[in-house]
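Target chain:
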Amino acid sequence: MAVGRALVAAVLAGAASLAASAYAASMEIGDRRLFATGPAATVPVPPEFLPAGVRAPAAQSPLTAGQHDALAAALWRNPLDQRLVNLLYVDAVRTGRDRTGKQASGRGAQTLGRLGWRYTQAQQNLMLRAALEERFPEVVDRADGLLRRQKMTDQAIAMLMAMEAIPQVHGLVVDKLLGDPLWRHDYLLRIAAQTPPQILDARIRTMRSLLSDPGDVSRAELAPTLQALIGSGRPRAAYDLWTQKAGPARANLVRDPAFRAATANAGDTTAIPFEWRFSQNLGYAASAGPDGATIIWDGRGVPVFMSQLVPVRPGRSYLLAITGRADSGRLADLIAPTLACGRASVAFAPIGTMTDNTRWRSGPVPPDCEMAELTIGGSVDTGAQATTMDIGRIVLQPAG
């Protein structure tokens, strides 16, 4: 699994400071060269983990024969002490052989694995060692064990995300998530636009699997992935995931055209870019209510009242219809809709105006634009008097 080895190395290298802090906290990792995270700095064994009469080796150097024998004797008296087994295991990993010349690290790992899962430093050592030896299913299990106990969570999540991106073990991570462990919500939130592309690709596959399960995925669990994909320049991939959850748009590129879902989710702070987002600031405020959206504006500036990401086709023009009215003036004179693609902005021009229904037509969408932000904003500041606008429905469709 060459891809797995490379990905684990990249994740550990990218999380060098995180790993270093974890090692400093555990005080029982032997040599950081084992984990490919930077200089060969070492940490000392804390005295409280050593039996009485055994001095801590300087700078985490290999145990002397006397120290090793003292640890072995202490373990003989207390064979279930995972701390002692772990110290001997780390020394065996560091030196490569035991005192009789036989390979000892493998035997130590087997012993540690059989003693249970409640000694954090031992599980940390075994997890990292298994990652380097490409025993990835074991890495998944040990990371799961640490997360269930809420120990070394940052390190365990980083490692589990690396496992998620390895095709041969991706299904094992999905199976853990489908079991709805206590750490699932926190894990699914740990994604960002700066996440390595392989892990973002894997998260798309993970979300597809979770969305196919009857248990579904909550808005709070899905939103970070959507935002990460959009931030990394992949809004279409984010939209496809959202469509799997919310269903396809029908006869209207705008979702929730009458603002019913916006009303239901008024108290939901989870930002879904493919739903209406309302703005408010000094001089204006937009919100959703039982009868649609309401905009209160003092007539100054050119604010954006509401927006939503919508799918578009490069080079096409679009028709926009807004049903509503204002208490002063016409909607066509007060509202200036746009379709924004990156730095490019496509304006709409009014093509028909009635008391309660205004229609606009956009110019062609840029050739590299597949998702655009539909914004409903104020027209150029004319110093007009304050106004209240009620919007009942918004429809966006391809032109001709």
The longest strand covers residues 387-398. Residues 2-190 form one domain. Confidence is low (pLDDT under 50) at residues 12-50, 98-102.
